[in-house]
Design brief:
- The protein has 314 residues and is α/β, with parallel strands linked by helices.
- The chain has a single domain (11-313), classed as Alpha/Beta hydrolase fold, catalytic domain (Rossmann fold, 3-Layer(aba) Sandwich), CATH 3.40.50.1820.
- Helix content is 47%, strand content 14%.
- It contains 13 helices and 8 strands.
- The protein has helices at 3-33, 70-81, 106-120, 133-144, 168-174, 178-190, 195-203, 212-215, 224-235, 237-244, 272-276, 294-297, 299-313; strands spanning 39-43, 46-53, 59-63, 86-90, 127-131, 151-155, 255-260, 282-287.
- The chain has an 8-stranded mixed sheet, with helices on both faces.
- α3 (106-120) packs across α4, α5 packs across α6 and α6 (178-190) packs across α9 (224-235).
Amino acid sequence: MTFLTLIVLATVLIAVCAAVAWSFAFERRAERRWTPEGRFIDAGGHRLHIRQAGASGPAIVLIHGAGGSAREIMWLIGDKLAREARVYALDRPGFGASPAMGGRIRLKRHAEAVAAMIAAEGLERPIVIGHSYGGAVALRLAVDNPGLASSYLLLGTASHGDVGPVAGYNHIAAAPLIGGLFCRTLPALLGPARLKAGAARTFHPDAMPEGYVEAAAIAQLFRAATFRANARDLSVVNSELKAQSKRYCDITEPVVLIAGGRDKTVLTKGHSERLATVLPNAQLAVLPDSGHMPHAGDFELMREHLRALTERRG
């Protein structure tokens, strides 16, 4: 081994150690900045962190999307809905303050966690709202647990096995060996600088609400365990949705689909519009000038549909 090779290896080792140290420091800052605001429950073997708001009215369960948390979806819509309903939002396993889970069939495990929370909280046929990947979880909840919920409201949902090519770094992050090192070094180092621009693209062409990135704690995604959990979800989402979509015709509960006509993250034509033709009891509303966050683009429309579902439930 030449002296130059030793210098290169030493430099790489120092860089990796520095990135690991930065990652741990980033996580300590994140823990101090965003302490859990809800409570923890034991739900079917999952230790789940949940947030609850509202003292009366129908029970509503919120399921956040990829990379999000209960804090994010509560900040966007949950706290507003709590004025007229009892709202429950969970950190899906691996996100927010909920520990990660094992297993390969990711949508099934997430749906099991939601069902366990509903049982643990004693919720009788709640209305379930899911956004994006959370909508896919809600669909899995519906096919695996007929009658558990009274109805579903899905926002920019992923439903079929063509979400699009998953970013290559997610496959690396999900890999058995190299994935752990990848998640412990690069996300915290490179992710925060791109955070605001990435979040704004998700809302586009709607404007991102002022204070969203901080209030919703989006930077928590760059914690090593969270980034790895998200990567494991996304690396298999297309194959899981392809298999799951064959069962949608069995969902008999009312399902409202709200999607953005200019959604570039989950294409409305290949998902919400396609799903509406398969579900026996579906209603579709497309906001032509909204993106992947239609609940932010037109909150009042979403609330009107929710009230209609509540009346049907009553």
